Amino acid sequence: MRHYDFIVIGGGSAGFNAARVAAALGRKVAVIDGAKALGGLCILRGCMPSKTLLYSAELLHHAQQGRVFGLKIPRAAADMKAIQARKKRIIGGFARYRVRQLTAGAYDLYRHRASFVDAHTLALSDGTRLRGDRLLIATGSKIGVPPVPGLADVPFWTSDDVLDLDGMPQSVIVLGGGVVACELAQFLRRIGSRVVMVQRSPHLLRNHSPEASGVVQRAFRDEGIEVFTDTKIRQVSSHRRGFRIAFEQNGRLVVRQARHLLNALGREPNTASLGLDAAGVKVSSAGRILVNRWQQSSQPHLYAAGDVCGPHDIVHLAIAQGELAARHACGVRPIQPVDDALLLDVVFTEPQLASIGRRESDWRTRGVRTLHASYPFSDHGKSILMEATYGYVKVIAEPRRGRILGAEIVGPDAGELIHCFSGPLAMRATVFDLLRAPWYHPTLSEIITYPLEEIAGRVSSA
Length: 462
Known about the structure:
The protein is of the alpha/beta class. The protein has helices at residues 13-24, 40-45, 47-64, 80-102, 159-163, 179-191, 210-222, 276-279, 315-329, 360-365, 381-385, 414-417, 422-426, 431-435, 449-459, and strands at residues 2-9, 29-32, 108-110, 114-116, 121-124, 129-137, 141-143, 171-175, 194-198, 226-228, 231-239, 242-249, 252-258, 260-263, 267-269, 302-304, 344-347, 352-357, 371-376, 392-397, 404-411. The chain folds into three domains: 2-143 and 268-338, FAD/NAD(P)-binding domain; 151-265, FAD/NAD(P)-binding domain (3-Layer(bba) Sandwich); 341-459, FAD/NAD-linked reductase, C-terminal dimerisation domain (Enolase-like, domain 1). Strands 1, 2, 3, 4, 5, 6 and 16 form a seven-stranded mixed sheet that branches. It has a five-stranded antiparallel sheet with strand order 17-18-21-20-19, with helices on both faces. α6 links the parallel β8 (171-175) and β9.
């Protein structure tokens, strides 16, 4: 039996970065990854392929709107085979680089499946057994099939299928209203598909504010996506010519049909085959591994990071969790836990939606009084000339000194603009600190000064 100081199960974003840190600290490390291809969800089937396709669709959309900008573009259409070839070329480069990192010799790599024999011992699918002083579970997530009537019985698409499309589907029903559902629904509409979205919650992107998600929802409808929210799905079925969905909304029965059905109702932790019971690892009712602020599970020497424990399935958070777990396991002190008050989130729809810190409603729930101010892109010079007037910038601050507590942006390049708040929030800066900085005109980012100025004028009287 081979023995290691630190064993990582899963070679994705969380696992790779944890192994890298532990090896750099001089520990004997093993990485176990039995997936068909190395690279993890983000590189192979998540962030990078989806954003590659979304960018192509964004350029197509702007070309089709050329007349608005005084441009004569006779015809703009998607060449799905060419789009797919470009995606494969780009993602192949990312994947090859990750493989080189994993096979460079800093740690032992095992290309097999693993399951726990006991809290320190793993059995691999080739019969090998490994023993670790400390272990990290970072096996990511898989597409879930929630108990929607009929869903498990039909040949639905997943995000994997949409990301591999080399032709344009005539029509698609999208089940769900989360990040994946919204990003891929807009992609499908922009390449030419008829799209119907059916969301069970009262609004799209339910983890964001109703105001922000309402802007995205309005933009979707303006682009021709048929959006239904606050629904109760009664039946999903398939037939020779496609799929049929029946659902209730506002007390009436609605039926829609399409050639294809995309299940984008969420993901679930990929832990079913790990034998967590044998290791004594406790999980939540949703199947996530329960961890403390150091990423330790119910077994202190067993850590978890990324989608298997959450609470948010975001790559930069998974990396931070993996690195924290490795440092804690290796005895590095002092260290700080991941600060959820700095949570950064971006949805790559158009308009984009981005937020950092806790939402205004979260502070109200905690009984904390705040100041907030917002300013619309529809009244901002640069966004007006760009014809990008959906949305707003909102800033949240504490009332005594004006320290910034969070921000929300829905609008053009929100995913880039939100980083104007990353450093200041981490440094506990105030609105006055940001206003001392120069903001160039005309730029999108100068819109941030307007809510900052409004809050600054209210701080002394709050």
